Q: What sequence folds into this?
């Protein structure tokens, strides 16, 4: 990463996004929207000051996602 301030990072994001395809941009937008939603709910992300254990958080979120995916697949099979 080269830009460390907000404007530099926005420029870097713009340059990177310019090389992405439509589906890749959709993924990027989804992640950005999730960050914005988290910011509205919990405040600005502060990785250095956040005391959550991100490894535990990741494990819990991935496990939840697997449950949702399995439920969706099972629901699809029963239709």
A:
């Amino acid at each position: 990463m080269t830009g460390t301030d907000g404007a530099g990072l926005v420029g870097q994001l713009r340059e990177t996004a310019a090389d992405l395809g439509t589906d890749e941009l959709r993924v990027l937008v989804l992640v950005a929207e999730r960050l914005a939603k988290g910011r509205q709910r919990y405040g600005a992300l502060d990785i250095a000051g956040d005391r959550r254990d991100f490894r535990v958080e990741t494990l819990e979120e991935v496990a939840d996602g697997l449950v949702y995916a399995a439920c969706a697949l099972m629901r699809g099979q029963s239709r």
